[in-house]
Design a protein that fits this description.
The protein is α/β, with parallel strands linked by helices. The protein has 13 helices and 10 strands. It has a 6-stranded parallel sheet, with helices on both faces. Helix 2 packs parallel to helix 4. It is globular and about 50 Å long. 45% of the residues are buried.
């Protein structure tokens, strides 16, 4: 295995919120971001379709020399990661690794709750997979987890409507439905990497004192810890401070919208999977 960048995959723009936090923690590393914008959103698609799309993207990043790939997409992590890790990767590239965002989040969420009641806001695909229910139960069996699907949030964010009055209705609707399940929820997990762009609206519609968790801030230190514990992977990660951005859709549109997620202007390249 030759040295290469760490691959970051998402179905669209949301993974940029994770990459933004990772770059803060690992500023010397090279990263290759791939957004499958031509086929986003993944949230309402079938397990089979999400797996096939994710595997195509993983194969592309492997061919680009990535020794480590992060699925910075909750839906892909929930519906494709395990199969890729167990069935595909051993034959494709047994010396490389593919990781997701669900497990590192599940490992720490219990540290934030005083009441033992946590809420998970995600896409329909993530919620229906019950991946968070299973992973959190493994790590913190005493926690009570309440899930709420928010199928309109990703389309609103992807279309730049997250600050509009039109988004208010759907933010309030899904939060109301979540808290109707338990008034004791004191910790909210934004289990979709698009959702941080709705944070201002979310914060004005929840009770005071509730902790809202942004996955990027959890995944970034978890990745740093992983690399420290796995030098056999870390040694093959390039450290030239370089960032590349790839999209399966029109680059001009990607560049324009990406700034809201990544926090700075970027230039992307078009790729066909």
């Amino acid at each position: 295995m030759e040295q290469g960048p760490i691959g970051i995959f998402d179905s669209g723009y949301g993974g940029l919120t994770v990459l933004r936090e990772i770059v803060k923690v690992l500023p010397h590393h090279d990263f290759l971001y791939l957004g499958d914008n031509a086929r986003t959103p993944y949230g309402n698609r079938s397990f089979k379709t999400i797996y096939e799309y994710t595997l195509e993207s993983v194969k592309y990043l492997l061919n680009e020399g990535c020794p480590l790939i992060i699925l910075a997409c909750n839906t892909a992590s929930a519906k494709a990661l395990r199969t890729i890790q167990q069935r595909d990767l051993p034959g494709l590239a047994p010396d490389r690794r593919v990781l997701g965002v669900i497990r590192p989040t599940a490992e720490v969420i219990g540290q934030y709750s005083q009441t033992g009641h946590v809420g998970v806001l995600g896409t329909s695909g993530t919620v229906n997979s019950e991946s968070y229910l299973l992973e959190i139960k493994k790590q913190s069996p005493e926690l009570k987890v309440f899930q709420q699907a928010c199928p309109m949030w990703v389309p609103l964010v992807e279309n730049g409507e997250h600050d509009s009055e039109g988004a208010d209705y759907f933010v309030e609707k899904y939060l109301r439905e979540l808290f109707s399940q338990s008034e004791k929820i004191d910790t909210l997990l934004l289990a979709c990497t698009h959702y941080p762009l709705l944070i201002k609206k979310i914060m004005t519609r929840i009770p005071a004192g509730i902790t809202v968790l942004n996955q990027g801030e959890i995944v970034a230190p978890s990745l740093e810890d992983y690399l420290n514990r796995h030098p056999e992977i870390s040694d093959f990660c390039l450290k030239n401070h370089q960032l590349r951005f790839l999209t399966t859709d029109e680059t001009e549109n990607f560049n324009k919208k990406a700034k809201a997620f990544f926090g700075q202007s970027i230039l992307s390249e078009f790729v066909h999977l």
